[in-house]
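Sample A.
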Amino acid sequence: MSGSGTLEIRLFGSFRVLVDGRPVDDGAWGRRKSKTLLKLLALAPNRELHREQLAELMWPEAEPGVAQNNLHKTIHAARRALQPDLKDGRGSLYLSNVEERLALTAPSAVWIDATEFERLGAAALSGSDSAALDPALELYTGVLLPEDRFEDWATGPRERLSRLFQELLARAAARQEAAGEFSRAIELWQRAIAADRCNEVAHRALMRLFAATSNRHLALAQFRQCQDALRAELDAVPETATRQLYEEIASGGGTPASSSQPDKVPLPPAAIAAVPSRRGYWLAAGVLTIALASAAWFQLAPRQQAIRSIAVLPFDSTSALEYLSDGLTESVINNLSGLPGVRVMARSTVFQYKGNTGDPREMGRALRVDGVVTGSVRQRGTAVAVTAELVDVRDGARIWGRQFELDDSSLSMAQARVSSELAAALGARPEASQAARFGQPQTANAEAYRNYLLGRYHFSQRTREGFLRAEKYLLQAAAQDPAFAAAYTGLADVYGLLGFRHAPPREYFPKAAAMVRKALDLDPQSADAYTSLGMIKALYDWEWPEAQAAFRRALELNPGHATARHWYGVHLNSLKRWDDATAELTLALELDPLSRIIQTNAAYPVHFRRRFDEAARRYRKVFELDPDFVVAHEDLMMVHHLTGRYEESLEEALRMLRASGEKEILAAVEGAREKSPAGRPAYRAALGAWTEILLKRSRSSFVPPIQVAQLYLRMDDRDNALTWLERSLAEKSVPIVYIGADPQYDSLRGHPRFQALMAKLRLP
């Protein structure tokens, strides 16, 4: 063997290796694992893997030292198989070792059928090379490495390439049908079913084609074949769309496959033979792959009802990858919410279903959406497998599905690819202002992306500890990629919410403002950044026109941004623009119907209009979602106070304190109530005990001064209430912006000190 030519590796159908065009004999491999070594390298990115990765993949149960020794011997055997006259491993032409990484090499070229198939297939599907379709299909001579059917490292690539094969067949079948070549289209769909007997898209395509070519008996037989395959392999029944098509054909109807419906078309014997009678059907063994409908199939059989609303349910994962699955779900939601004409359920609503193993279609019906997206994130050796699919809630049809095999360096592509393909499946295109950035990865830095996801994961806990952990990870992400705009927006949200309730606003809101400016410098089209800017302008800077402009800009960029609509609605409510506030909060609820805070805040316009009975009904409605939701208890407590129902207000205060875990205040309030006469005296005593604890705490830690002001006000101590309101203004305690509209301050409106506060706030 000269060793001066090519190394050719074939993975489809069965494993074969050719050196200079001559096959390597089976007996030349020496060790069984020598073949496995070449298979792993052939499937790896850039055809190379670190020696430690190889040892772990090939001998996962062995001690590291033993595994490395085995690997050394296996490499030697593989080199001798490829180059029998090799005297020294360092002279190998086909297996090189550089810095502990083993790679496939050759003096001329390394050619791998799976790699070439994937290259040609991608070119054919993207439209960049339509002539690549047939050569790609010719390369797929059978399932990838069938002899390694149960090896984890082969499963992901096998499924990925099988799905690509199905998509290429669908594209080729659609092309043949458009040209009037019905027989050829039928052969291609039958080839798809031969590879995946449960591919209902292919079964329906054949049923339509048979019906359209006046071969109704074959169409009905095709349905029976589909029914038998699903029962045998999945213990399932055909989808609603398949059953409806069968009933239509059985009754004498049937949708033509194209606008030019021919007379009865003679089919080739192979096409007829492939649709046997029900009795004679032989259940052939095959590898189950996920049936996917390509864009070509959508053109072949367009859906009668467009999907105009969807819920992206939380992607399933192991606990170790929870941050990744949650982040991927949230990113896809954020991307799709900007698509015109599609209503996308917001994060806080769909995450109510996290961990729910029920029927996704039932969840979709409960959310009143047309389609649901489900998915999973799983570790596959050194890679991460992300699967996702879109199902029509109305008929159960699978509209789109995909699996991506990603390594650490390409994880940031996951949300981009899922979002782009889902948009295409929905037939939706982003607005012109968002088109350039839609479906693009937020950063090319893998570690920055991972830290960003960890930051968002901890941020979503909405606790002080969670915010501080989020800050740490987001700062790391920004340091690793200074051009990563989303990391700065995340930091702005962290600092804003810390300053809202957990820490002095003057400590955190200026940091939030700096992060927003940085984010907008990097990405002027970020709806998230404009939403954060609106929050800062409304709650801290007290610049009302600028706040309104920021929220409006966010909604121009993404009309489906639930948080922007929510925060804008609350801001409008503080300005007494109650009709506008109601409109925005209603839209926010449509996008996020299970959000407890939006449900609560949506009652503010009626509360602030002094329609207290209606407000109380709205707050009680929140408890159907969460009986312990603190904010709703707090607001209902205030409604009872304003209507003179002091005992009910005190009971609601106790519920709030129990739900919030404030054991010290709870004990003090309960003790004061027991020692005082029922009614107003017990109420005042309880509030006094509560106030004493907050005053004590304020001497050593941060207590929002407006909380103390409100307690004094409920005890009719106006002087102390005004003193603490003035302190709230000086410290920029966030809820001070609501005093112009909030009815709890009505008793102070004629007081000069209160009017001075209003003048400084410049509230209407």
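Sample B.
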Amino acid sequence: MIFPRRVALALMSALTMLLVPGVASADVAGEEPAGGAAIGEIVLATGGALLLTTLLLALAIAHRSGRTTLLARAGAAAERRMGMPGWAALPGILSALALVVALLGMYWDISMHIDDGRDAGPLANPAHYLILAGLFGCFVAGVLAMVMPTERPGPSAVRITRDWHAPLGGVLLTACAAFSLSGFPLDDFWHRLFGQDVTLWGPTHLMLIGGAALTLVGRAVLMVEGVRARRAAPETARPGPEPKLLAVQHAALIGGFLIGLSTFQAEFDFGVPQFRFLFQPVLIALAAGIALVTARLWAGRGGALVAVALFIAIRGLVALIVGPVLGQTTPHLPLYIVEAVLVELVALKMTTRRPLAFGAVAGALIGTVGLAAEWGWSHVWMPLPWPTALLPEAALLGFVTAVAAGVVGGFIGRALSAEGERRPLPRPHAAVPAFAALAVAAVVGYGLIQTPDPGISARVTLEEAGGGPERMVNATVAVDPPSAASDKEWLTATSWQGGGFAVDRLERAPDGTWRTTRPIPVHGEWKSLIRLHGGDSLQAVPVYLPEDRAIPAKEVPAASSFTREFVDDKLILQREAKDAAPWLSVAGYGVVLAIALSLLALLAWGLTRMEKTAGRRSPERRPPASPKRTTQRPAVAAR
């Protein structure tokens, strides 16, 4: 079968567009860029993208035309280890390794930005290489899954050309990885239009981490297709994996999905969130509801516990490497242990044959008992313990999110575990997952509403702490009016981007003022500020900000005593941001949102297709035309 030239050209153009940033402007000499990459780095990135794309497509074309047996032999070796066809086994191994690399790179990158601020350039940050290598590895895995089968891999396969049917999981994996990779060039465009957004939740940053997390859905679909293909051809295939081993693989894969969903919590894990505190319990409920319900339905008994065990092992290892080993700020993590136990207990008391109802009940317990356990854990090992001021808002929204997430997890688990005997959902019930997704979107939309409280000021008195050339001070803060600082989510002194990071929760003195519990830095490149969060208001007062000629911004000195108004803390934490025309912001956010919704719709369609094709056999079709020249062995090519 000849690999179509138009398909090759389309893939090359698409991948080049994903990896190549936009046209650059000159940076301020001697300063970290505050508005996009330098021209020289764009040239290097472009050349690297073209080279990698050319090599990948050359390999794909050679395999499809029969001019190489490299992929066939590698697939056969992976098949012997995984017990499923090579087109599912090899991409599965590659994508798993790639995601671990990307995960380490992501947390290392976030920690470096918290400790040191902006990069000297995209190619000057070693963590970027790990992220890019990991995401590109996922893209390669998806492309290989699409091109490796020489026959139709199953009834859920997607027709590409007359004689080429790609596994659905390969298509989804490729789409998710491409979505994630597109965040790199779009991030550069975004910085040029709107300035540096030193927050994890910038739109293009969410594309990077969201696409990477969703590749696990494509990987799960690919595994299901591989197992189904093996069972459909027992007379020519080797024995598949043992059921218990397969269940462990399922649970481990969903454990990776739990890791991916939990990356959205990273700002809270580090202790410098730039959005409302209620998001942390909401995001924990979302990740636990979707991933743990899916794990129990797909992997069976103990699946949720195995998923959490893998989560703790991998995230714990990453925290150890990023913190003590690499010397950066250590990321914290939720436990999910109680939530996993709750899911397993629900499965013992009610049938999992009604996955949506099972997910809703499990979600209800996650949103109550599970969040209560995470509340306690936050006071053991979280940089910002959960205060009572979060009640009742976070408890209510966390409960709603957990129930909705459990229903979504029931939908995913049902699709992955469908074996043909299960009938499709009745039409009224089929809309339930969609309404659950809308409920999650509504909670997120509500949480994004922020309204600064006007008329609040802080009278700050600084007391020198120790000698030496590097100035450290203790701060006493009098908030006016005093009631503005009572029963708030946080009142902290935050110092970052000066070669480290520190967050200090202020203690109330008998005279009604608030005091730091340890000295804060007010020298060099440090940025120190007092942050106040109550309700839907996030505000801050700068204590010390250095001069930044690249923005440009003047120094805010740390006088021994001063009075300053609280302002939207985004203006301080993200002072590299640029003012842009409202229509440009709407267009930028609209484009990113449209792309994200399209990807989610594709995944929903893919999961529905998996359920509908369960139990079917691939339709008979005539053999493909013989390639011009091939050296493949018939036994390998038939797999």
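B remarks: The domain at 457-573 is CATH 2.60.40 (Immunoglobulin-like). The chain has three domains: 1-241+579-639, 248-417, 457-573.
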